[in-house]
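quick one before i forget lol
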Amino acid sequence: MAGFGHTERRNMTAVQKLREGFREGRYQYKKENEICRLAGVSAKAERAALSSLLKELEEAGEVVRDERGRFVTPEKLGLVRGRVQGSGRGFAFLVREEGDLFLPPHSLHGALHGDEVFARIAGGARGDEAEVYSVISRGVRLLTGTYYPEKRGGIVESDDRRYGTPVRIVGGLRAAAGEKVAVKLTAFPEDKLPEGEIAEILGRSGELDAEEEAIIRAKQLPAEFPKKALAEAKKAAAQPVTAEGRRDLRGKIVITIDGEDSRDFDDAVSLERAGENFLLGVHIADVSHYVKRGGALDNEAYARGTSVYFPDRVLPMLPEELSNGACSLNEGEDRYALSCFMEVNGRGEVVRSELCESVIRSRNRMTYTKVAAILAGDAETVAEYADIAPLCTDMAKLSRILEEARAKRGGIDLDVREAHIFCEGEEVKVEARERNAAHRLIEAFMILANETVARFLEGKGLPCLFRVHEKPSEEKASAFAAYLRGLGVPVRFSAENVLPSDYAKVLSSAEGSGARTVVNRVMLRSMMKARYCEENFGHFGLASKCYCHFTSPIRRYPDLVVHRVVKAALHGREEEAEKFASFVKSAGLRCSETERRAEEAERDVDDLYKTWYMRSHIGEAFPACVSGFSGAGMFVELENTVEGLLPSEGLPPDDYELDAERSVLCGARGGRYAIGDKLSVVCVGCDVGQRRVSFVAESELSRLRGSSAAARPAPPAKGKKGRAQPRPKAEKAKGRRPAKVGKGKRRRKK
């Protein structure tokens, strides 16, 4: 077998020949020396090269070794591929596109949460169990947790309980008991705990700052920008703004509308009358003018994928010189933009559209609160902004037309409550964020611009990074239908082919009733997760046939990709635009991944701040509603969006069982709780490290006082300091056959 050399070309040829050998069966169930003999390889250098290539195929999951050490393709052994999702309770799940499989504790064989593995379907009582055969790659190489000393070194209990096992510390920095640390995993010994080195000490466990830093490290969110990226940003930001080669829109009334605490303004709007129609202008910061493809700044933006927003800080996709400076559409400053003009008729239809590069100057930096006040007729605010008050009124008229049009085509208006968490020095406050008319106005305009740009690119046959939201699976739609029937809500849709309008009608039928909240929640859970894709599958939630993200290039990389393709098309460089096709596919996967990472980090940090806030409210009663169920009881949500567990022991005494099909907790003596039900609860405990809040029903507090079911109220927290948690017992990995692990570097997903 010729071709085993050291050049990349020869290497690729050799890999292909190896693959062909396995595909044709020549190398199946053969050891390395047998493969060398069959391939006609005898020279020492070529044997070493072949060995290296076999390891490469093994690490990629293209071949595995059986119990006798022979190489074989996974298909020959009947193996399936997936990722382990731990539970924190011993068992785990094998997550696959074809459907998840259950992994009992005895079938993990050393595999841990996040690992990519091969497994055998083992059947089980329900036919959905599996057993890990080998580990392809370790999913976690850096974790955070609390350090506890032992006689022989120490251990770290992971913050992520899904990881399921402590880590034995064998080197690195020296930490004190109860300190929050970041651990770099170094080894996975057979029948022993994983080993690692302390890479960073973050502070005391239970401190707000330390816990937040731990989340950032665990999600591998980059905080500092590379020097080259910063230098590029500084140089780009220093460029003067001119109207050369662009449409000069500085004479138009253009405004931004954002939150009071916003610092990066990447969208502005204008509106004029065009006879009976409206001429809407959506002007988006031209980030692509400053961030050149393939540069250090672009590479860093791609790696980050999105800005990440926390209550006390932002981890931006772009350095501050651009995100808050040159790219931000600041009031009274000339800025480069990519403008989308849309002429909209009285039925909400775009009858004409145009895209162009422009220069704009924002007339006013408006907030949602101020615009809402204008629309509500607040005399003082109207007088203060007399020059743009009529503009705001016209914008409100157009937004209502667009909302009605979207509702007519079946768009789903989910009322998702969000938290507004803000810090005043050391004090944390949590409130429910109110969605007013100004929020809906901007939302309607941005949706329209995103649809218009997506149609523009699709109409020209150019690549586009679509924002797709596929219809619910038949299984989830059926479960949702069954739940609705349990509530007495009419079901008039087919689970096999559910339409957006079907879901919109369900919400409409529940409007004005107590079931609206519960229907809203369960519907959201039944739907697919939106993602980025090079193919257009439409957007189910918006009932849109063609949709992309165009309006936030300062904070989202997909928008920047779309801008580059649009600008290439505007300049007649369609060949250049077509070259984006291969990149768009990988960018879709990468951007979907970074979006999920950012969302998880934001949710975890929000939960952390909510838990910290509730520490000063232990012992207080709150109105709440049932938001979900678990094996331990049910979850309740306060009016400020704080959610916590109310165990069954904290409810009126009864023998409770969960009716999973209808999501109802039923008691043998008449107790009954469904999602959306109202009750009064008392906060009885907060675990900052685990970001958990505990409640009991107010009616049961006196009965449970002093019992284990109701934690004793802790003193209110002061400042950002907390106490270290008591050391838990370390559990050794006994009685497990270690999984085989492919050696080498972990592959990067794109």
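fyi Residues 238 and 679 are 58 Å apart (CA to CA).
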